[in-house]
Structures are given as structure tokens and as C-alpha cells.
Design a protein that fits this description.
By secondary structure, this protein is of the alpha+beta class. It contains seven helices and eleven strands.
């Protein structure tokens, strides 16, 4: 009899203890999600994205389809800049293509979908705030092993707190520049930040350096960084590049041109910049 009473008592104690533990677990706050600085950066890009005073960095992060035999238009993916961008104002087809760097000579990343054995080359132009070409531009870029993602390191040092515009074009035809797929954007150099990893750059809204450091880590240890790399591509609206190789590229040659860019009065008009380059500057520089 005594044993039955003790057994009943222990059952009650165990039942009450179990009920208490379960109720405590239900009252606990949910565990915070794992930190994802890349996703946080791009989800909050509207607050991080603070264009310089007096300028609207209108650009184009993805080029149109190529034309002509060297750059066939039937390819599913066009040239693409791996840089943050936002849609323009409502009703506008333009993009705001702009990012920060802490580096004097930052690296820009582009996807080129065309076969290297068929292409002539690519060109990169960088202009300062006065719409003047930097000394070593335009750069002639000899493409090898494309299609793939390539990198171009800017040779002329950028000044801190200065805004620069860049213009990248794949040269499919030297006679007809309108056939050359092109993209354009803006870059601003800022003061150094605490830390130099892609997580640090993401937290501080430094888009260009974020891409460069993550590419570097991903190339060294793809298994460890694959998820962050795919997250970056998704954030850049470039999921179609998930399986694209990052290729060892490129050889660049400075044109050491004495040409200056036209005096474009309205920096807000990205289409005017593009059209003026194609009509006036590109035929003489390329």
C-alpha cells in the first residue's frame, strides 16, 4: 500500500514538473534568426542608399542584347554589372546604379556572356565630377575565357568623397558603336571603415568592396561561402548567374588618350551621357 502511495506521489511530481517545463518553453521568445549582413544590406538599401548631394546616379546595371555576328542577340543573359541598384522614380525605366568603396583603386565586376574567341575587346571609361576622363582612360580590356564574370581594377586612384561615373562596353563592332552592349553606373570613395571583410562592408553599406571581398573568399573556399555568394547574386537581381564561372581576367591597356569628354551640363540625364558617348566620344576613342 505504501509503495503504491509513493508511486502515485512521484507520478504527480513528474507530471507537474513536465507541465512546468513545457509551459516555460512556450513562453520563451523565439530564437533570433542567424545574422545575414548581405541580406540585411540589400533589404535595407533604401536607407543605406544615400546618393551624393546635387547628383542623381542614373545608370544601367544590365545591358541590352547585342547585335551583329560577334555579339548575338539570342543569348538569354546580357552583360551585367555586379553593383547595387534601385529602380528609378515611378514611371521611369532608369535605374539608380551607385555604390561606395573605401579603396583608392577599387575593382569592378562584370558578367560578359560572349565567347572570347569571337569578341574584339571591351572598354571602360571613368569620368570625374567635372565630366572629364581620368588620365589613363579609356581602358582597353582584352577578354580571355569568356563567357564569365570578370574583374577590372581601376588604375587611377579615386579621391575620398568624390563621385565618379563609369561606362563599360563590349566592343562587338568598331564601325557601329550602337551595336555594342553597354552599361553604366557610379562609384564614390569614402573614408575607411572598421574592419575589412564583406560582412563589415555589408553592415556599412560599402557595396563595391562587399562584392570584391566576397568573390575573393568564394574563389578560395567555394563550399564555405556558396550560400553568401548565391545570396549576393539574388540581391543583385542576378540569379541567372548562379552557375557562371569567375574567370581570371583581364589584361588592360591604357589608351593614354588626350581626348576630353563633352561638357554635359545635366548629370541627372543618364541617357544623354550614354548617347553623347556613343555619338561623339566613343567613335574617336575606340
Amino acid at each position: 500500500m505504501l509503495q503504491q502511495q509513493m508511486l502515485q506521489r512521484w507520478k504527480k511530481i513528474l507530471t507537474l514538473t513536465l507541465a512546468f517545463v513545457l509551459s516555460s518553453l512556450l513562453l520563451l521568445p523565439p530564437s533570433p534568426a542567424a545574422a545575414n549582413p548581405i541580406g540585411d544590406f540589400f533589404r535595407g538599401i533604401q536607407t543605406v542608399f544615400k546618393p551624393p548631394r546635387g547628383s542623381t546616379p542614373v545608370g544601367r546595371s544590365r545591358g541590352g542584347g547585342g547585335r551583329g555576328p560577334l555579339c548575338p542577340a539570342f543569348l538569354a543573359t546580357s552583360i551585367k554589372a555586379l553593383v547595387p541598384s534601385l529602380e528609378g522614380s515611378e514611371g521611369s525605366t532608369s535605374e539608380l546604379v551607385w555604390g561606395r568603396t573605401t579603396q583608392a583603386n577599387p575593382t569592378l565586376w562584370f558578367y560578359v556572356p560572349y565567347a572570347a574567341d569571337r569578341l574584339k575587346f571591351a572598354k571602360l571609361v571613368v569620368l570625374d565630377e567635372n565630366k572629364q576622363l581620368l588620365p589613363q582612360y579609356p581602358l582597353r580590356i582584352s577578354l580571355v575565357e569568356t563567357p564569365g564574370i570578370i574583374s577590372v581594377r581601376l588604375p587611377d586612384p579615386l579621391e575620398i568623397n568624390k563621385l565618379y561615373s563609369w561606362y563599360f562596353s563590349v566592343i562587338c563592332s568598331t564601325e557601329k558603336p550602337s551595336r555594342n552592349p553597354s552599361i553604366r553606373g557610379w562609384i564614390e570613395r569614402t573614408e575607411p571603415i572598421a574592419g575589412n571583410t564583406y560582412e563589415d562592408y555589408a553592415k556599412n553599406g560599402v557595396g563595391y568592396d562587399l562584392v570584391t571581398d566576397l568573390v575573393s573568399q568564394y574563389k578560395r573556399q567555394p563550399e564555405q561561402y556558396i550560400q553568401d555568394w548565391l545570396q549576393l547574386l539574388e540581391s543583385l537581381d542576378a540569379k541567372d548567374l548562379n552557375d557562371v564561372p569567375i574567370i581570371p581576367c583581364c589584361t588592360t591597356t591604357s589608351s593614354q588618350s588626350t581626348h576630353t569628354s563633352p561638357n554635359i551640363a545635366d548629370v541627372h540625364t543618364g541617357d544623354l551621357l550614354k548617347a553623347t558617348f556613343e555619338r561623339v566620344v566613343m567613335p574617336s576613342l575606340w
